[in-house]
Write a structure and sequence with these properties.
The protein is α+β, with helices and mostly antiparallel strands. The chain has helices spanning about 55-70, 80-90; strands at about 1-5, 10-15, 20-30, 35-45, 75. It has a five-stranded mixed beta sheet with strand order 1-2-3-4-5, covered by helices on one side. β3 and β4 form a beta hairpin.
């Protein structure tokens, strides 16, 4: 399954009728140039499908969408050691200049 909006993509990996995993990403136009980058917002693989290349298959589809849309770079916030390990094994690199992640609740 592939759901698309001009700047949002959802990919779903299935085995038969069973959902094995999903990926949600956003194309972000850069305000400082005509280029755009991709935010990998979320990827999830059900536990029984982990270590079976489902995550890599989802990333491969994502990379194809990047090429189709002229997007040169993807970034992701990896929030746990398993995620960091997965992304490193998938050729992601830790950026040297780390931004400060800040939040604010609506009042």
């Amino acid at each position: 399954l592939h759901a698309e909006h001009p700047h949002r993509t959802v990919e779903v990996a299935r085995e038969g009728e069973e959902i094995a995993g999903f990926l949600y990403c956003l194309i972000v136009p850069l305000r400082s140039s005509d280029e755009q980058e991709l935010l990998l917002y979320e990827i999830g693989v059900r536990s029984e499908f982990r270590r079976k290349r489902v995550g890599r298959l989802l990333l491969a589809h994502m990379e194809g969408r990047m090429r189709t849309n002229g997007v040169g770079e993807v970034w992701v916030c990896a929030d746990n050691p398993a995620a960091v390990e997965f992304y490193r094994a998938s050729n992601f690199e830790i950026a040297e200049d780390q931004p400060v992640y800040m939040t604010r609740r609506a009042r």
